Amino acid sequence: MSGSGAWAAAAVAAVTGGYALVSRRLAATAVSAPLVFTTAGVLIGPVGLGLLDLERDAGPVLVLAEVALALVLFSDAATIRSEEFRSGWFLPVRLLVVGLPLTIAAGGLLAWALLPGMTGWEPALVGVILAPTDASVSKAAVFAPRIPAVVRHGLNAECGLNECLVLPVFAVLLAGLPGTAASQQGATGILRDVLVLSPALGLVVGGLGGRLLRRARDRGFVTHDWRRILPLALVTLAGALAAATGGSAFVAAWVAGFVFAAAAGAGASASAVPGGEDDTLESIEHLAALLAALSFTVFGAVLLGPALAHLSWSVLGYAVLSLTVVRMLPTALALTGSRLRPATLAYTGWFGSRGLPSLVLGLLVAAEDVPGTRLMGTVIAVTVGLSVLLHGVSSVVLADRYGRWYEKAGALRPSLRERVADKPPGEHPLPEWKMW
């Protein structure tokens, strides 16, 4: 390890340890973990201490970001619960089937209109990269107990699914940029590898691993500690096989996580392990959270810091519109006719936070030494950085206000107030989602 690399590692370790010591106190404040680590990254990057630089440290930076996203994809897919769709399935389905394509189209059109330096497929690529959402950026707003369960589950399910849905589109558009490594495969080869090969590898690895774990667990062959290590081995195997065969490690990791949970029952019920809840996914969730935090540090250092030095009004305007109109208008259109009240529509639309998926895909684009990637990297970095700031700062306050609004009688439509006033929770004549 070089001198600058050692100092960078020491700085990142110090920030991580310092945040760990006050994490509980900060959890209830506007200071989110992504905000802390992104700010620290800017300070140790080229515009600060100069300890991390994309040109000098591209290899380790990309490996860290890719591993973090693969672990998050596996963990998100493995922890998707059926109850997240049972009472309010319409919310994530509409956000994904209608809202996501509209968001991608709006983001691409806005980039084409507002950023004339982009040509070809570049505006569309920016729209795709900035479409997926990340619950970790606005964690308090997504997971606050006071928020209606359908909204919590809907936003969480959207975050767990949309990142995988955009990956094939990203791969095809990246192949359309002349000079990139993906362009040598061509769109047809990319589609074959991403849509067929990668899911097949994930299906085999996750399904076989889950079945073997269930049998080993039933027969008492596997220890408690090694049971939690197995998912780490499976996501590594699925991702490595996909990368080695020219596919997408991210798609393979997501499919492997989804199939693994179904085959092994990991995290699905408390009865999976005698005497308590199944914590098979605990290790991978903790490691994914740690690497995601470190990825925000790297993002702040090598992408956001340099981007701030090239900030322009058009880039800033795109970032603001991307977080507001580009997200909120498609959300409102997707939920037309759902009978959700304006406050819920606004809350759902606002908390489409951009985070780890966008920053990792942005790093992959920025690492390509082809014309146009600098402007794309700048736009993506500023948008994600602004999301980390605005969504992180507003999540606690808005979650509290929205939760209090929902708890009051005014949260119910006037026509329903009398019908539910004398009935305990769970016995309302209409599903919960129709009351807000």
From TrEMBL:
PANTHER family the record matches: CNH1P, NA(+)/H(+) ANTIPORTER 1
Tagged with keyword Plastid: no
Name of the protein this chain belongs to: Sodium:proton antiporter
Keywords: Antiport, Ion transport, Membrane, Transmembrane, Transmembrane helix, Transport
Organism superkingdom: Bacteria
Subcellular location: Cell membrane
Domain Cation/H+ exchanger transmembrane: 13-394
Lineage: Bacteria, Bacillati, Actinomycetota, Actinomycetes, Kitasatosporales
Chief location of this protein within or outside the cell: membrane
Listed Pfam families: Na_H_Exchanger
Listed transmembrane segments: 6-22, 34-52, 58-79, 91-115, 194-213, 225-245, 251-275, 287-309, 315-335, 347-367, 379-399
Membrane topology term: Multi-pass membrane protein
